Amino acid sequence: MNKMPRDNRIPNNGMAGQAPVAPPVMNTIFWLLMGAAVAQIIAAVFGVLHASSDAYRQDAIKQLAAQNVTDVNADMLEMMSVATVGTITVVAVAAVILYVLIGLFLKKGMGWARLAGTGLALISFSRYMGVNTPGGMATLLQIVLGVGAMVLCFMGPAAVFFKDKRTHKLARRKNARLAR
C-alpha cells in the first residue's frame, strides 16, 4: 500500500512548515516601545505635579478670566485640578497598557499590532502640539521612541518578518481547509 496521504500532498518536512523566526530588530522595537511607556509614566508624573501646583491654579484663573468667568472660587479651582489629575492618570494608564500590548504582539509578528502602534504614535505626536508642562521633554522622548519603533517595523528585516508571518498564516489556513 502507498503510504502517501489520500489527497497526495507531500508530507511537511523540515523548514517549509515552520513559522518565521523574528529577527533581532524585533527585540529593539519591543524595547523602544517599553522606553516610550516609561517616558509616558514620567510625563504623567510631571503632569500630575503641575496640575497640583499653584502655578496651574493661577493659569486656570487667567484662562477663566479670558472667558469672562468671574465667579472663580477655591472649590472650582480644586475641582479643575482633580479633573486634570484624573484625566492625566487615566490616559497614562491606557497608553502604558497599549504600549506593552502592542510591543508584545509586535514581537509575535502580528500585523494588526503594527497598524495599532502606528496609530498610537500618531496620537502621541498630535498630543505634543502645544505641550508646555514640565513633562514636555519626557513626552518628546516618548514620541521619538514610539515613532522610531514604528518606523523600524516597516523597514528591512522587520518588514520581511511581518510579510513572511502573514504568508505562513495564510498557508496554514489553506492547509487546514484542505485537510478537512
Describe the structure.
- This protein has helices at 25-51, 54-66, 74-107, 111-128, 136-153, 156-179.
- 74% of the residues lie in helices and 0% in strands.
- The protein is mainly alpha-helical.
- The model is unreliable at 4-15 (pLDDT under 50).
- It is elongated, with a radius of gyration of 25 Å.
pLDDT averaged over residues? 83
Given helix and strand content, the structural type is mainly alpha
Q: Unreliable segments (pLDDT under 50, ≥5 consecutive)? A: 4-15
**Cα end-to-end separation:** 22 Å
User: So what's the overall shape?
Assistant: elongated
What value does the Rg take, in angstroms? 25 Å
**Helix fraction?**
over 70%
SS field, number of helical segments: 6
Order of helices and strands: HHHHHH
The number of strands is 0
Summarize the main sheet: none
Percent strand equals under 5%
